Amino acid sequence: MTQPLHLYEEITFQQFALFIKTHSKQVETNINIYLNLDQAICEPDRKIIGGMLHSFFQLLTSPANIEGINENYHSSLDTWLQSQLSIINKKSLYLFQLIFEKSLLTLMIQIKYNRIIPVYMFLLSIFTYLIHSYSKWVDEEKHAIDTQKHLPENMELRRLQKLDKLNQLLIRSSGVQDLAFILKKCEEYFHYKRCVFYAYIPWSNQFYGVIGAELAKVQSMKGQITEERTVFSSKRPIYLKDPRNFVKEEHIKLFNLSSIIFVPIIHQEQLFGWLTFDQVGEEFDSSKNELDLLEQVGKRIGMYLSRKGEERKKTLEIHLTERELTILDLLSEGYDNKKIGESLFLSEHTVRDYVSSLMTKLKAKNRTQVVASAFRLGLLN
Fold this sequence. Notes:
Number of domains: 3
Number of strands: 6
CATH topology of the largest domain: Beta-Lactamase
Distance between the termini: 76 Å
CATH architecture of the largest domain: 2-Layer Sandwich
Largest sheet: 6 strands, antiparallel
Radius of gyration: 24 Å
Mean pLDDT: 83
Low-confidence stretches: 309-316
Shape: globular
Number of helices: 16
Strand content: 5-15%
């Protein structure tokens, strides 16, 4: 008679995530050691795998997962996998799995953990699911490409036509003041209902909403970029079919978000900000080809903003004094009147007068609108 397989204790996703959270520092240390000391991994792969490991680690240790995602944790894994579509391939997925497994096994041996088998088996079940989902996505992508080959216009030609339209638009446009129109045309060219621009402030490592439909809502968006905001840490587009683990719930409700794509605007390593594309509450699928296309959109707009940088200040009708420009820079960094006064050896009353003057010249109702208007007019890069 065949002997039954030995049964091992099963654990839940919540228990697994809690274990990772409890030993997060040791796991991260092991990951860094295996990632950086393996000479067989080339530098480009090391960066890709490092980003995957970091975002996956954030997924496992986020409060939402620890507090109670059990039965539908597969949807969280799918969301994470979708966020990596622009960079992932079979090789990176294999190395990512190998390094995470080695790091976790090393930890459990180091602490002499007595439940190695259930934890390791659950980890294997996670990777089995990820590999299955990735393979399914690859098959669907291949089928889509094969289907496109039989259409009158192949996919590459249509892609080039869309980019050519954008190129012509950028050539005709005159500066940052035309960015709102450019975003509106991007919605049309690439078939999305909403496109929003979020600017990046490098010296304070912050973002804020600048241009998009329902402007008041867009400009209410601002914040510090932290490790938890993984959508802002990637240099490649990120697609989120379900953004709940990556975007705050109040922001999802505010903008009626379902699926969304984040596209960095970059030129020569300079990050200007991000574009977001979505269908206003409607869930949608995306593909690697689509993300590659939108990556080119981000690069072209980044080149456009860089190219126009020297021209913008020359064409402005608004003239600010040197002191007003200095205060404007400090306002964009989030300084209040007291800190501005301390930095420039001015009284708070004098600073208030300068801020009031800026509001008048830029036709702004408050300090936030001063900064947003200054960016649109090219007074801030």
